Known about the structure:
By secondary structure, this protein is mainly α. The protein is built from 25 helices and no strands. One of its GO terms (biological process) is exocytosis.
Amino acid sequence: MGVKSDGEGRRIESLLAAKKSLQNTLEKSRDLAVALEKTGPRLEGMSRRLPELEAEVGPMRNHRKILFGIGGHIDRAVGPAAELLKVFNAVHGLEKSLLSDPRSDIWGYLAVVKRLEEALKFLAENCGEATQWLQDIVQHLEKHGVGERNHLPNLKKSLENLRALQAAEEEKARLDGGLLQAALDKLEGEFQGLLEEHTVALKPSPAPLPSERPCIAPSPLPGPVVQKLQAILERLTVNSRLDRCLKIYVELRSANAKASLAALGLDYLATEIVSVENVEAYVARWTKDLEFAVKHVLDAEYRLCGEVYEKIGPDVWVGCFGQIALEAGMLGFLRFAETVADSKPNPIKLLKLLDIFDGLNRLRPDFNKLFGGKACYEIQNRTRDIVKKVIEGSCEIFRELMTQVELQRQRPAPANGGVPMLVSFLVGFCNQLLEDRYRPVLTQVLVIERSWRRERFQERILTEGIINIVRALEVNLDTWCKSYEDPVLSHLFMMNNHCHFYVHAKGTKLGDLIGEPWLREHQQYKEYYATMFFRDSWGKIPALLSRDGLITLSGGRATARDLLKKRLKAFIEAFDGLYRKHATWVIPDKELRESISHSVVQALVPVYRSYMQNYGPLVEQDESPKKNAKYTAQDLEWMLGGLFQQTSQKPMNGTAKFNRAVSLDPTNSPMNGNGKANLLRTSSAVI
Length: 687
C-alpha cells in the first residue's frame, strides 16, 4: 500500500507540471495573437513598399554579376603586375653593388650586371602586356559604371602615361633609373684601366752588340687579364658599347706599338731623298727594322687582338688590328720604300731595290697573314705598288748597264794611264750581283718581270748579261788604248787594266763565271804589257851609260872625260824626261807597282852606281862636278821608288764612285720623250 501511494504521487506531479506548461503556452498564444494584431499593419506597409525595394536592388544584382564575371581577369592582371613590382624592387636592391668599384671583384660585379640585364629584360618584355591587361580591366569597369568615380579616371590616366613611356625607346633605359648605364660606364673604366696597367711601352735590351739590332720582346697580356677583358667586352657588346671599347683599345695598343718602334730610332723614315746615296746606309737598317716591326711588334698585336676579341668575331678584331697597324706607323715604312723606288736610277740603287724586294719577299707570309683583311686595304695596295716599282726599276737598271758601258766608250781614256773608274766600279758591281746575297734575288726579280711581259725566262739571262758587260768593258779598253798618242802610256794603261781584271776577278763569283782561261789570258796580257812598258821606256836608259871608248890611256884623260860627261848628260836628261812624265802616271795595284819599281831600280841603279864608281873620279876633277853627276845612286833609287803612286783621295761610297765615273744629267727625266729609259747620260766628265 505504501508502494501504491508513491506511484500515484508521481502521476499527480506530472499532471501538475503538464497543467502549468499548458497554461504558459496559452499565455504565449495570447501574447502572439496580440503581437500579430499589431504586426499586421506593418506587414501591409512593407507589402506596399516591396516593389520599390525590388526596383532599387535590381542594379546591385547586376553589378554583382559583372564583378563575379571579371574577378578572374582582375586576378590574372594584378598577379603579373605584382611580380613586376617585385622585380623592380629587386633591381633597386642591386644599386649598392653596382655603384661600388668593380676592380675589387670584377667577376662578381659582372654577375650582378648580368642579373640587372635579365631583370630589365623581364620588365621590358612584360610591362607592356601587364599594362594592357590592367587597361582592359579599367575600360571594362568604366563601361559598366563599376568602381568609384574618382579612382577610375586617375587609374586610367596613370596607365596612359605608363604606355607612353614604354613607347619611347630612350625611356625604356630608365626602367632602372639609369643604374645600368652607370654600371656600364664603370665597366668601360675597368676595361681601360686593365689595358693601361698591362700596356707598357717596351724598351730595347741594354747594351746590344754593334752588329745587333735592339731586341724588344713584346709580351702579350697575361691570360687572366685577357679573360677579364673578354668578359667585360661581352657585357659591353650586349649593351651596344663595342665601338667605344674598340676606340679605347686602339688608342692604347697603337700608342704602345708606336713607342716600341720608336726605340729603334725611326727618324730616318722621314728623310727627304735627293739621291740614293743619301739613304744608302738606311736601306739595310730599314729591312731589319721592318722585319722587327712585322714579326714581333705587329704580330704580337695581331695575336692579342684575336685573343681579346675572339668571342666578338674575326671581322671585328681584324679591323681593330688594321687600325693599330696604321696608327703605329706601318705606312711610314712603306713611304720610305716608295721614296727609294722613286729616286733617280743608278746601279747602286739596283742593290738597294734588291734589298727592299728581298726584305718584303721574306715577309710576304707575314704580310698576307697580318694585312689580309679589308681594314688593311691601304697597306695591301701600297705594298703591291712598291713591289711593282722595285721589280720594274731593278730590271730597267740592269738592262741599262750594257748601254751605259757602250756610251762611255766615246769618252777619253784616263790621262794617267790608270784604271777607269767605270771599270773598277762595274767589276766590283758585277761581283756583288753574283754573290749569294743578290744573285737569287735578282734572278727572281727578272723571272717575275718576264712573266708580267709574258716572255719566256732564260735560265742564263743574268749570267749572260754580266758576261756581256765584261766583254763590253774589254772592248772599251781596246778603244781607249788606241786613243793614246804615247805608246808607252798605252802599254801602262793596258797593263793596269788587265791586272785589275785578274786581281779583282780571281777567286770571286765573277772569276768563276768567266772561267780560268779568261783569267790566265788577263794575267798573260798584264805580263806582256809590263814587258812592253819597261822595254819602251826605262829599259832604254841603261844603254846610255856605255863604256865603249872610255879606256883611260896616258894623254887621253881629257878626251875620256868629255865622252863621259856627254854620256852622263844624255842619261840624266833621259832620266829626268821619263821621271817627269811618269811622275803623273799611276799603277793602282800595289804589288804590280812595287814589281815595276823594283825592275826599274834594278835596271838603272846598279848600272849607274858601277858607272860612277869606275868613272866618277874623272867627273869630280871637272870644275863643276855636280853639273855632270846630278844624282847619286841613292837618289835614283829613292826617286824611282816613289813613282806611279796614286794621290790620296777622300773615300767614296759606291754611288759617288759611279757618279764620278759617269755623269748624270740632273736636268733630264729618267725617261726620255720616247719612253725609253734614259738612266745615265754621258758628258765630258773625266773618267
